[in-house]
Design a protein that fits this description.
412 residues, alpha+beta, DNA polymerase, domain 1, 12-stranded antiparallel β-sheet, two-stranded antiparallel ribbon, 13 helices, rod-shaped
């Protein structure tokens, strides 16, 4: 009765009305008797409320009719959400919605059906407009949420890619930090190029001496000349120390200036030193400085600068039980994979007068250059005689004694 409980194709309550064969009853049309007949493609309709109507089809979706002497033209075209409507007054555009239809060009022709009750005209237009506005708001909100999800996923992907790229770098964030620091050092080297030009660059031995004084002396906060005098350096080495202090007016106040001078020596030594000798030179310089105690924080930074600008790679390694904690320095790309100090293990005792070049170079404080000088000046009667060689002072001799090094007469 009155379609109550019946649903349309969209699952909504059908319009509440009664449509019998001859009886019609609805909220808007009231109660009326109706009769219809069809002949030769023409529909004849009589209604007690609306009068008589004669209608026929003028094409697909188009109807032409006469009702109580009034001409009627109706047309509806389109199968999607948008439809074109034809009437005597012209063409209009409407959209079908879940609650009815909204006419964009002629809103008063809109309709809405809520709980089976159908409304037409201006009130229906207001309800349809409100419905469309609410629907548009929710669609925009949905799009905004989707956009935020996409942006969040892109940011997460970019962050993951960045972290993976950093993790793939040798040493990760430490390598990145050192790369930034090295760029700052190179800028300082360009600003200090006039002072750096006063430092030796063409002689490998002087470069080693300058690097040793910068690392051991400046790294502990004293002048290069004071360090050379304390260690009993030869006259040539003291001349390099004087050049170093003179170029920078004593001890440079800025960390970047000290690093720039150290980088200058390391970079030049990379070009001048014999292939394969750089790791041993750096270890010898570090051994020399460690005689006076553990590295200072400044020396730890300078050691990284030396490795980076000399083209070396520092890496930690697991020591054997007899060696204790040791590390290694190898030639290659700059890299630091740990915090351990690059140190050599204890050396076996040997006679300074009979040891070959490889054994001498393995001793603390002895580079290849000094090893050749030792071989050229043998025999020695005492380890103290080694102080006559440039770059070997009392501290190095004491270190050799502690390592068990002897010479012929002392061994007897």
């Amino acid at each position: 009765m009155l379609n109550i409980g019946k649903k349309d194709e969209q699952g909504r309550q059908r319009r509440i009305e009664h449509r019998g064969r001859n009886l019609r009853a609805s909220r808007t049309g009231g109660v009326a008797l109706r009769a219809q007949a069809k002949a030769a493609g023409v529909n004849l309709t009589a209604n007690t409320s609306r009068g008589a109507r004669v209608s026929t089809s003028a094409g697909k979706g188009t109807q032409v009719a006469l009702q109580n002497g009034r001409f009627i033209l109706r047309g509806r075209y389109g199968s999607g959400p948008l439809r074109f409507n034809l009437s005597k007054s012209g063409v209009s555009l409407s959209a079908k919605t879940p609650v009815g239809s909204f006419n964009f060009t002629k809103p008063n022709r809109s309709s809405v059906k809520i709980a089976g009750i159908q409304l037409r005209g201006q009130k229906a237009a207001y309800l349809q407009a409100a419905y469309l506005a609410i629907g548009l708001f929710f669609q925009l909100a949905k799009l905004a949420v989707l956009a935020l999800m996409v942006v969040a996923q892109l940011l997460l992907w970019a962050l993951r890619a960045l972290l993976q790229a950093l993790a793939a770098l040798p040493g990760g964030f430490r390598t990145l930090r050192r790369a930034v620091r090295n760029m700052a050092i190179r800028r300082r080297m360009r600003r200090e190029r006039e002072r750096l030009a006063q430092l030796p660059r063409e002689d490998a031995e002087n470069l080693v001496t300058g690097l040793t004084l910068a690392y051991a002396g400046w790294g502990r906060g004293c002048s290069a000349e004071a360090c050379a005098a304390e260690e009993g350096f030869a006259a040539a080495a003291r001349s390099v120390a004087a050049q170093l202090d003179s170029a920078f007016n004593g001890i440079p106040a800025g960390q970047r200036t000290i690093e720039a001078a150290t980088a200058h020596f390391a970079e030049a030594l990379r070009q001048q030193a014999e292939p394969g000798s750089l790791p041993e030179i750096v270890l010898t310089i570090d051994d020399f400085a460690l005689v006076h105690g553990p590295r200072t924080r400044r020396q730890a930074r300078l050691l990284e600068v030396i490795a980076d600008f000399a083209g070396l790679r520092m890496e930690a390694r697991q020591a054997t039980a007899s060696e204790g904690a040791t590390g290694g320095v190898e030639e290659g790309n700059p890299e630091d994979n740990g915090e351990r100090n690059p140190r050599r293990g204890e050396q076996a005792a040997l006679d300074i007068n009979t040891a070959d070049a490889d054994a001498l170079v393995a001793l603390p404080g002895i580079s290849e250059v000094r090893a050749r000088q030792i071989q050229a000046n043998r025999p020695f009667t005492s380890l103290s005689d080694l102080e006559s060689i440039s770059g070997i002072g009392p501290a190095t001799v004491q270190q050799l004694r502690e390592a068990g090094v002897q010479c012929g007469p002392e061994a007897k």
